[in-house]
Amino acid sequence: MKVLLLIRPENGDERNSYYQKAITSFGGEVIRVCDDATEEELLKKLKGVDGILLPGGDIIGNWDFYLIDYAIKNRLRLLGICQGMQSMAVWKTGRDLVGIGGGQHNNDEDDYHHFVTIKESSKLRQIIGKDYIRVNSFHNFTVYDGGNFDVVARSDDGLIEAIENPDHPFQIGVQWHPERMLEFEHDLYSEKLFRAFLEKKN
After folding, report:
1. Is residue 130 predicted with pLDDT exceeding 90?
2. Structural domains in the chain (count)
3. Is residue 77 within a helix (H) or strand (E), and if so which, with residue range?
């Protein structure tokens, strides 16, 4: 399966490499495109891809909304992580991100920090196999329910932690960083999420 990976310059080589490794570890092929690419360059890269990964970052990127539109219209698989999920949530709503400050949500990406409850009837619940899991956390903003996607997971303090398109096999956004937790071999839930994303089924 070919996956378009949006490269956010602010992430640097190390953070961008975690996403690439997560894709290739489960048999995917990475097509990289930088967030400052031209539309012509982007369209060329999109030819023949099966899915799109919108990674974490500091701000909503130049091409986030375009790529979400493209994935929806062409029924591509879509995985939004942290900032990528936030972009999915505010896509077409005009709503801003909401600052949350520090606390349990702005911690190291490489360790567990809080629990999330996953909606029982959701695709994410089917993939993960549990309705209450621990996740890592590294974000300064949260989102309101914009109605673009179903809210399917929340933290114990009520923040939106995952969204999904109920009308597609895999268009899911998560607020945590599963690509980082793959470094810990015991994090089965991150592995399950990427395996499901990289199944070429529509």
Report:
1. yes
2. 1
3. strand 77-81
What contacts 24+ positions apart, CB below 8 Å, involve 38-43? 42/66
Domain presence at residue 16? yes
Rg of the chain taking only CA atoms, in angstroms: 15
Of all residues in the chain, what percent carry a pLDDT higher than 70?
94
Please, are residues 159 and 175 in contact by the beta-carbon 8 Å criterion? yes
Q: Name the pLDDT band for 133 (thresholds 50, 70, 90).
A: very high
Q: Which of 180, 139, 178, 181 is nearest to 160 (CA)?
A: 139
Instruction: Name, in order, each residue with C-beta under 8 angstroms of 102's C-beta and a sequence gap of 6 or more.
Output: none
Q: Are 175 and 85 in contact (CB under 8 A)?
A: yes
Buried b (16+ CB within 10 A) or exposed e, 10-26: ebeeebbebbbebbeeb
Predicted TM-score (pTM) above 0.85: yes
Over residues 138-147, mean pLDDT: 84
CB atoms within 10 A of CB 65: 15
Query: Higher pLDDT residue, 110 or 78?
Result: 78
User: 17 to each of 5, 8, 9, 153, 176, how far by Cα in Å?
Assistant: 10, 11, 12, 27, 17
CATH code of the domain in which 8 resides: 3.40.50.880
